[in-house]
Amino acid sequence: RQVLLDVEDLVVEYGVDEPVRAVDHVSLRVRRGEFVGIVGESGCGKSTLLYAIARLLSPPARIVSGTVDFNGHHMVELTEDELRHIRWRDYSVVMQSAMNALNPVLSIGAQLRDAIAAHEKVSAATMRTRAEEVLRLVGIDPIHLSSYPHQLSGGMRQRAMIAMALVFRPDLVIMDEPTSALDVVAQRSLMRRVKQLQEEFGFAVLFVTHDMSLVSHYSDRLAIMYAGQLVELGPTSEVFAQARHPYSVGLLQAFPSLRGPRRELTGIPGSPPDLRHPPAGCRFQARCPQVMDVCRQEPATYQVGRAELVRCHLYAPSRRTPEPVEPR
Ligand code: SF4
Ligand code: MG
C-alpha cells in the first residue's frame, strides 16, 4: 500500500531555558487505509507527536527538526493559511475531550455547518443534508443537530467530534485517546463504529492510547513510545505474539488480555526518567529487568523478525551471535 504519512526524525521540545525533548527523533510511516496505534504511559510524548504531525502544537512546544510528509504536503513548512486549506478536508483530528474541542455556545448543527462552509460553498439545504448524513454515520439521531454539547452524553459528544472529523471524508484521521473518558461499553461501541467507517471509506487512522487492549483489536501496526522515543514498531499481531523490547514486554504484562486468560495487573515498577535530564544511554535502564553495562550507551535500533524497529542492546547482532573468545 502507498505511504500516506511519512514522519522522519521528528524532534519536538517544550520550553527554552531547559528544554524538554518530548519527541526525540521519531520516524513513522502510515500507509493509505492503515490503522496505526501509538501506545505508551502518560508523558511519553505520544500526544505531542500527534499534535506535531497535525500542526496543532502551541507554544512553548515547537518542532525543532525533522519532516512530516502528508500526501505530498510538507507539513512542518506549511503556513497557517495553507494548513486551514487541508485540515478537516484532507486530515482531521479527534481530541481526547470533545468538551474542549467543541464550541459550547454553538449547536452541533451550527458547528457542522461552519466546518462545511469553511471549505465549500453549498446551499443551506445541502449543508443540512450533509450534516444529517454524517451524524447518522456515527449513530446520532439528526434530531441532535439542534443540541448543544452540554446536552449530549460524553459518548455522544465524542461521536459528534468524529462526525465533524468525517464531514469531508479525509485521507487521515488523527485520534488522541478519543474514548478514554467513556465507560467500557460506550468505548467498545464507538471503536467498532470507527473501524466500520474506516473500512467503508478507506481513511487511515493514527490513534494514540494508553490502552493496549484497544489497539490489539483495531490497529494494523503498533508503535510503542517510551520517554519521547519509539522503542518498538511492528505489526500488531507480531508485537502481541512476541514483544521484543523489555518495555513492550512490561506493558503487555501490565494489561490484562481480553482474549486469553486474565493475567494479574502487574504494572512496571518505577517511573519514566525526567526528560529535562534523561540518563545517558537507554532511557529504560532504571526500570529494565535485563539491564547490562552496555545500556549506559545509547542503543541503536534493529529490525528483528517482523518487527520493523526495536531500540535495545539485546538485539545487537553481536549479542545475537556471540563472537568466539580468543584463546591466550
Ligand atoms: Fe533494557 Fe538495555 Fe534494552 Fe534498555 S538497552 S531496554 S536497559 S536491555
Ligand atoms: Mg495524552
Automatic annotation (TrEMBL):
Top-level taxon in the UniProt lineage: Bacteria
Domain ABC transporter: 5-252
Keywords, ordered alphabetically: ATP-binding, Cell inner membrane, Cell membrane, Membrane, Nucleotide-binding, Translocase, Transport
Keyword 4Fe-4S attached: no
One of the GO biological process terms: peptide transport
Gene Ontology cellular component list: plasma membrane
A GO term for molecular function: ATP binding
Subcellular location: Cell membrane
PANTHER family the record matches: ATPASE AAA-TYPE CORE DOMAIN-CONTAINING PROTEIN, OLIGOPEPTIDE TRANSPORT ATP-BINDING PROTEIN APPD
Protein name as annotated: Peptide/nickel transport system ATP-binding protein
Taxonomic placement: Bacteria, Bacillati, Actinomycetota, Actinomycetes, Propionibacteriales
